[in-house]
C-alpha cells in the first residue's frame, strides 16, 4: 500500500476522525485541517491511542481563503483531499443561512481553488442522502432525482455537488471527484476512544438515545408515529461510522489508481436496510440492557417518512459494502457514551 499524504478537512469531527484511523490502517499519511468549531482537541489523543501515530493537525478556518491557500501550499505534496469540514445542524441552518453558506460553500470554494493552484487532483466530498428529499421510489439509487433542499444546510450539499460537477467538467480541470452521499451514520470505533461529540442538545437520534439512557436527558421524543410505515415511525438507513470511514479509503484509492469511470462520480453509502425509530430503540435496549425513557410526540417539521439506499452501485463499482449491523452500531454508541461520562 501507498505511504501517501492526504489532507483531511474536518478530520477532528465525527466521521473525519474515524476516517483518519482507516486511512492510517491502509498506509496513508493523513494531515488534519480543522477549526475545532464542532470538535475538540482531545480527539488527537484518541487517534494516537488507536493508531500509535501522532496525526499532524493544522488549526485553520477554511472559510478564510488566505489561510486555506497558505496551509495547502505547506502540504502541496498531498495526493488527495477528503473534505468533511462543514456545519451540519439542519435547524440552525434555517436560523443562520448566511453563516452556513459562508462556512460550507466558502470553505469548499477555497479548498477547490487551493487544489487547482497546487494541481492536487483527487477529491472526496461529503454529501448526504438529504439531496434526494422524500424519494418517490425506494430504495434510492444514484440516478434517483434530487429534490429541492428544504434547509440551507441541505442546499449547501446540493450546491456543493453542483460546484464540483461544474469544476470537473471544465476543459482545463484536472480534478477527479467522488461525492459520497451518506445515509445516517451512527455508532463509534470499537475501542470507544473516538465517537460522536455533539455540542449541546443533540439533534440526531442516537446521541439523544445514549444521553437519555445515561441520564443527561430526561426523555427522548419520538417524532411521529403516524407515518405510513409498519410501526408508524420514520425509517432511515443507519450505517456504522466505521463502515462509512472504510468507504472513504476505497473511494480515494479508486481515484489515486485512476479506476474512476469519469472525473465526477457519485455513490450512495448505506446498508440498504431501513429501520424505524422504534427498531433503533429496541436494538439499543437489547444490546445494552438499558431502558430508554421515550414518548411519542408530533412529527418533526421537514422530516421525510422513509429513505434507504440501493447499494448495488457501491458494491459492484466501488467493491465496498457494509459489514456491521444495527446491534453493533447501538452497542458501540453506548460504549462511547459510557467512556465519555466515565
Ligand atoms: P462534525 O461536525 O463532527 O465534523 C465536521 C468538522 O469540520 C468539525 O470538526 C468542525 O470543527 C470542522 N469544520 C467545520 N467548519 C470548518 C471550517 N470552516 N474550517 C475548518 N474546519 C471546519 O460532522 P460529521 O458528522 O463528522 O460530518 C462530516 C461531514 O459529513 C459534513 O460535511 C457533514 O455535512 C456530512 N454529513 C454528515 C452526516 C451525519 O449525519 N453526521 C450525514 C450526511 C453528511
Ligand atoms: N428522531 C426522533 N427523536 C429525536 C431525534 C430524531 O424521533 O430526538 C427521529 C427523526 O424524526 C428521524 C430519525 O430519528 O426519523 C433520524 O433522525 P436524525 O436527526 O438522527 O437524522 P435525519 O435523518 O433527520 O438527518 C440526518 C442528518 C442530516 C442529514 C440527513 C440526511 O442529521 O444532517 O440525515 O443525510 F441531512
Write up what this structure looks like:
This protein is of the alpha/beta class. The chain has a domain at 5-186 and 238-269: 3-Layer(aba) Sandwich (Rossmann fold). 40% of the residues lie in helices and 16% in strands. It contains eleven helices and 13 strands. The protein has a seven-stranded parallel β-sheet, sandwiched between helices. Strand 1 (5-9), helix 1 (14-25) and strand 2 form a beta-alpha-beta unit. It is globular and about 55 Å long. The model has no long low-confidence stretch (mean pLDDT 97).
Summary keywords:
two-stranded parallel ribbon, Rossmann fold, 342 residues, binds uridine-5'-diphosphate-4-deoxy-4-fluoro-alpha-D-galactose, 11 helices, binds nicotinamide-adenine-dinucleotide, 16% strand
Topology, element by element:
Layout: E1 5-9, H1 14-25, E2 29-34, H2 43-51, E3 57-59, H3 65-74, E4 80-83, H4 90-95, H5 97-118, E5 122-128, H6 152-168, E6 176-182, E7 184-186, H7 205-214, E8 220-223, E9 235-236, E10 238-240, H8 241-256, E11 264-269, E12 275-276, H9 277-288, E13 294-297, H10 312-318, H11 326-341
Parallel strand pairs: 1-2, 1-4, 2-3, 4-5, 5-6, 6-11, 7-10, 8-13
Antiparallel strand pairs: 9-12
Gap from first CA to last CA: 38 Å
How many extended strands? 13
Total count of helical runs of at least 4 residues? 11
Q: Let me know the average pLDDT.
A: 97
Helix/strand/pairing category: alpha/beta
The CATH topology assignment of one domain is Rossmann fold
Task: Give the bound compounds.
Answer: nicotinamide-adenine-dinucleotide, uridine-5'-diphosphate-4-deoxy-4-fluoro-alpha-D-galactose
Basic shape: globular
